[in-house]
């Protein structure tokens, strides 16, 4: 009988590995430590707001090909919404200026030559140095490759890279920044349309994936934390779930799709990223004004992006480590006053602020520095039946949904394509 693939971790990396494996006819069991699937990309019922919200606003782009293929496979592509064209409205809180970036669809960046489409105050030549990031060496930081100063930096490069890398851009890896630019600005507006899960991450990305996996016969085991891995010379021979061990048969395999700190505790001597950056989200239960765009970039404030959802306005702050210990009500008040000034909603309601919630994810992503990027391991391990997945493995992308899904696909391909000759004889089983 064909072997079983044990997928450890039900985040997007684990779910995408499971989908690809089951599509290829493999039998899959997913083991998840917590009581829910989705990992860092999930919806939950929030008591303070009295509504279901996402742990954080997640933005996808139309060029996220693996993520869009994942959504098509689980039948949920219609649940992503966004403008028909690649448009990004911005507000500068210090000057009060408002503008919209309009990328043109094709790869030729015509928008750069059109003063009504590009960043106001910039000239076409200002964009040329960005190309240096495309060929940056892996040990270089963004600040070593381009000037992190000036109008174009503040109005375009900083917000783009801060959101994509989740790190103060000058310290970010130039190689990862280059990958972001290659897959967005350099790929043309067709790849840059912003997309959000209107009904939430759970109903869009997680629940349909679980339904699809169940239909294909996969099993999900919640509150089933892997505690240890027993290794033989060339393969994993058993999985220890604390009081219960699963001994692997000759054809069984494992995709380890847990965060880096969990993987490092399970595999001795595994090098992984060890530094992280936070993301802070503020959610307000209030109807956005009817004309409010789904996403607005905000400059010179605490707020970086404002998302409008039915009945809720949400704010994202990337690289938000400095807000982790700030009093929650102070943070909520500061952010709400900025939201009010951008959206035109009243800054003071009769009840004070609208019902609010602050969600702070301390270890939202690994710190995308050149040094941390160099610690990312490949999916393939020295054990024949073990592959690694996760947004922190060496995907060539920053820690994103797209990276997590590509990593799961890659791990699944490695397991599925194991040459029969590399499989152990039954004496190991
Ligand atoms: C607030 C926030 C905002 C974000 N915004 C964006 C965005 O706008 N766009 C974007 O593309 N990306 C965004 N991201 C990043 C994106 O969420 C992640 O890249 C992606 O979800 C990572 O998926 P993963 O499967 O690699 O890891 P995880 O989601 O961390 O999944 C790992 C899973 O393994 C489980 N696990 C851990 N240890 C064990 C064990 N021993 N046994 C069994 N299970 C275990 C965990 O419980 C978890 O479910 C954001 C992240 C956060 C936190």
How would you characterize the overall build of this protein?
This protein has 429 residues and is an alpha/beta fold. The chain has 10 helices and 20 strands. The strands form 5 sheets. It has a 7-stranded mixed β-sheet, sandwiched between helices. A 5-stranded parallel β-sheet has the order 10-2-1-14-20, covered by helices on one side. Strand 12 and strand 13 (245-247) form a beta hairpin. 49% of the residues are buried. Residues 425-429 have low confidence and may be disordered. Bound molecules: flavin-adenine dinucleotide. The site of flavin-adenine dinucleotide has 36 residues, from helix 1, strand 15, strand 19 and helix 10. Flavin-adenine dinucleotide (FAD) is lined by residues 8-14, 31-34, 39-41, 55-56, 58-59, 225-226, 257-259, 262, 279, 281, 361, 364-365, 390-391, 399-402, 404.
What is the overall number of helices?
A: 10
Low-confidence stretches: 425-429
Overall pLDDT confidence: 94
What structural category do the secondary elements indicate?
alpha/beta
Globally, the shape reads globular
Strand content: 15-25%
Helical percentage: 25-40%
In total, the number of strands is: 20
Run of helices and strands = EHEEEEHEEEHHHEHEEEEEHEEEEHEHEH
| Alpha carbon gyration radius | 22 Å
Distance between the termini: 14 Å
Bound molecules: flavin-adenine dinucleotide
- Can you list the strand order of the major beta sheet? 8-7-16-17-18-15-19
Note the topology.
Blueprint: E1 4-8, H1 12-23, E2 27-31, E3 43-46, E4 51-54, E5 60-61, H2 65-73, E6 80-81, E7 87-92, E8 98-102, H3 142-145, H4 151-165, H5 174-183, E9 194-197, H6 201-215, E10 219-221, E11 228-231, E12 236-240, E13 245-247, E14 253-256, H7 260-266, E15 276-284, E16 295-299, E17 305-309, E18 312-317, H8 328-343, E19 356-366, H9 370-373, E20 386-388, H10 401-416
Parallel strand pairs: 1-2, 1-14, 2-10, 7-16, 14-20
Antiparallel strand pairs: 3-4, 5-9, 6-9, 7-8, 11-12, 12-13, 15-18, 15-19, 16-17, 17-18
Bound molecules: flavin-adenine dinucleotide.
Flavin-adenine dinucleotide (FAD) binds at residues 8-14, 31-34, 39-41, 55-56, 58-59, 225-226, 257-259, 262, 279, 281, 361, 364-365, 390-391, 399-402, 404.
């Amino acid at each position: 009988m064909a072997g079983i693939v044990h997928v450890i971790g039900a985040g997007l990396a684990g779910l995408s590995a499971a989908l690809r494996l089951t599509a290829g006819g493999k039998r899959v069991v997913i083991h998840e430590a917590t009581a829910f699937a989705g990992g860092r990309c999930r919806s939950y019922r929030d008591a303070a707001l009295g509504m279901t919200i996402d742990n954080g606003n997640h933005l996808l782009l139309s060029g996220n090909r693996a993520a869009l293929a994942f959504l098509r496979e689980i039948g949920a592509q219609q649940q992503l919404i966004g403008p028909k064209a690649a448009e990004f409205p911005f507000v500068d809180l210090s000057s009060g200026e408002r503008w919209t970036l309009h990328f043109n669809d094709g790869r030729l960046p015509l928008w750069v030559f059109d003063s009504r489409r590009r960043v106001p105050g910039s000239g076409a030549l200002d964009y040329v140095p960005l190309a240096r990031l495309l060929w940056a060496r892996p040990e270089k930081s963004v600040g070593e490759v381009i000037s992190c100063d000036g109008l174009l930096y503040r109005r375009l490069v900083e917000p783009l890279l801060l959101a994509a890398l989740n790190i103060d851009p000058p310290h970010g890896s130039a190689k990862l920044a280059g990958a972001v630019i290659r897959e967005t600005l350099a790929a043309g507006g067709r790849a840059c349309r912003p997309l959000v899960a209107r009904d939430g991450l759970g109903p869009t990305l997680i629940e349909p994936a679980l339904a699809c996996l169940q239909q294909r016969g996969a099993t999900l085991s919640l509150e089933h934390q892997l505690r240890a891995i027993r290794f033989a010379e060339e393969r994993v021979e058993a999985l220890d779930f604390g009081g219960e061990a699963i001994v692997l048969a000759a054809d069984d395999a494992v995709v380890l799709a847990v965060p880096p700190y969990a993987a490092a505790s399970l595999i001795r001597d595994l090098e992984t990223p060890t530094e992280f950056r936070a993301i802070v989200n503020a959610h307000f239960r209030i109807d956005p004004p009817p004309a409010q765009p789904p996403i607005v970039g905000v400059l010179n404030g605490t707020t970086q992006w404002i998302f409008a959802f039915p009945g809720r306005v949400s704010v994202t702050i990337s690289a938000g480590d400095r807000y982790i210990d700030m009093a929650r009500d102070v943070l909520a008040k500061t952010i709400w006053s900025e939201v009010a000034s951008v959206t035109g909603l009243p800054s003071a309601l009769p009840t004070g602020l609208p019902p609010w919630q602050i969600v702070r994810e301390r270890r939202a992503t690994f710190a995308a520095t050149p040094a941390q990027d160099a610690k990312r391991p490949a999916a393939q391990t020295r054990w024949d039946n073990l592959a690694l997945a996760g947004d922190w493995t060496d995907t060539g992308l920053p820690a994103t949904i797209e990276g997590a899904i590509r990593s799961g696909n890659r791990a699944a391909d490695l397991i599925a394509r194991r040459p029969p000759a590399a499989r152990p004889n039954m004496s190991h089983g």
